Amino acid sequence: MTEDEILERIRAIFHENFGIEPARVVPDANLYEELDLDSIDAVDLAIKLQEMTGRRIKPEEFKAVRTVGDVIGAVESLLAAQD
Which residues are annotated with the PTM O-(pantetheine 4'-phosphoryl)serine (predicted)? Predict the structure, then answer.
């Protein structure tokens, strides 16, 4: 899966689950300050990413995620772990 494909999937997750317009979901957008996610939303996002990748996200790894770009990186590392 390419970075662009991951971004499109993430945009769909944000739109479907949090009502955030896809145009706002850009790599440098801060999840908490710009997209108004809270800690419960972050847990929901982690669950959706686990469903998307089929891999479990370690909570300590997800705590470092602050931007959409970080989410893309997390997905890429989960997918790489499958190879």
Answer: 39
